Amino acid sequence: MPGGKQPRDEFSLIARYLKELDRGPAVVVGNGDDGAVLRLDAHEELVVSVDSMLEGVHFPFDSPPSELAYRAVAAATSDLAAMGARPLGMTLALTIPEADDAWLRELRLGLSDAVGDFSLPLVGGDLTRGSLTLSVQVMGAVPAGGAIRRDGARPGDRVCVSGPLGDAAAGLALIEGRVAGDGPANTALREHFWRPMPALDLGISLRGKATAAVDVSDGLLADLGHIAEASKVCVIVDSSQLPISEAVNSIASGEQALAWALGGGEDYCLGFTLPESHELPPGSCVIGRVEEGAGVRCDAADAVDGYRHF
Ligand SMILES: Nc1ncnc2c1ncn2[C@@H]1O[C@H](COP(=O)(O)OP(=O)(O)O)[C@@H](O)[C@H]1O
Ligand SMILES: Cc1ncc(C[n+]2csc(CCOP(=O)(O)OP(=O)(O)O)c2C)c(N)n1
Ligand SMILES: [Mg+2]
């Protein structure tokens, strides 16, 4: 174009930054039509979930766009992991305050990384102008009847988690400058906040074994509370068994580390209940037991509540 100016309407922005990330084995019709078409294998069911990320609520103002894109997709994908679903595809409803090419180029890099890392083609979406928001809808597949739900936990099951707890909350505290730290711990914790790794393979491997699962988004105790409520059981958590990383312990007091582990959320690992008859998956650890009763009980005196939007 004369003067090197690029058209700024949403269709040219979509064409430039949001297309051609839509290839995958399940994609029959990808980006660019009125709707995408995804293929399910015979005897499969569709798993669907959506999560929004807003500036100032889910990430700090002026965050790097590549990290935002990656994190929004990872957080949404984590719900597929918790259901034991194999990823099929995603859509992205993106709202941005202005059409800044450098910013959108960076966003695409993060999106592209996430598409590759989670095998989740971007098959469609929406682009509007307004306060920065990324809403990611993910779709996955499970064998009919095979989704891992929240309502199957039974007294006697072990309560397990798939990864360290509190890293994301510690990472956000570092990013926001609320705590200080340097060296590899600092880098690893920030990375954990920006690029969480949804446990897709673990979720699939837990089908038919775990009696219930959730992903840790609002905070461990809050999220286990969903299992307790849906399964009509009491979930007991032993705070001495929580996996807390060296990195977190290196920047925080024991009390702070425990508060982050129990209530910080956004680690996007899985919390699940597993009968004694099934072997503990590598990398996971037992943090408690399911008993008859209701709610979540934890020995930590001031056991913290999870994140609440209202
Ligand atoms: N606006 C809404 N309309 C209908 N259902 C909703 C809405 N918001 C949340 N839900 C449902 O309520 C449940 C809890 O939501 P949420 O805490 O966001 O789930 P998650 O933590 O797994 O992302 C989910 O099953 C979700 O689909
Ligand atoms: C700027 C900023 N402040 C605070 C937080 C912490 N935080 C925001 S939302 C949230 C809970 C998870 O988000 P939600 O929208 O409830 O996800 P869902 O449970 O629906 O997956 C937490 C811990 C953050 N990530 N960024
Ligand atoms: Mg969830």
UniProtKB/TrEMBL annotation:
Its EC number is 2.7.4.16. Substrate binds at H58, E266, Y307. Residues 32-142 form the PurM-like N-terminal domain. It catalyses: thiamine phosphate + ATP = thiamine diphosphate + ADP. One of its GO terms (biological process) is thiamine diphosphate biosynthetic process. Residues 154-249 form the PurM-like C-terminal domain. Mg(2+) 5 binds at D218. Mg(2+) 1 binds at D51, D126. GO terms for molecular function: ATP binding; magnesium ion binding; thiamine-phosphate kinase activity. Mg(2+) 4 binds at D34, S49, D79. ATP binds at G125, D126, R150, S217. Catalyzes the ATP-dependent phosphorylation of thiamine-monophosphate (TMP) to form thiamine-pyrophosphate (TPP), the active form of vitamin B1. Belongs to the thiamine-monophosphate kinase family. NCBIfam families: thiL. This is Thiamine-monophosphate kinase. It comes from Congregibacter litoralis KT71.
